[in-house]
Amino acid sequence: MKIIGNLILAAVVLLVISFFAAPGVAFFALRGAADSGDVAELDRLVDYGAMRKALGPQLTGRVETLTPPPSILEDPIGAVQRQFQRGPVAEGPRADAYLTPAALGALTRGEGRSAALRSEAGNAGAEPPRGGPWPRPVYWGMDRARMAVTGDSGGETVFTFARTGFFSWHLVHVSLPEERLPMVGQSGRKGG
Question: How does pLDDT run across 177-189, given as a tens digit for each residue?
Answer without folding.
Answer: 876 544 444 444 4
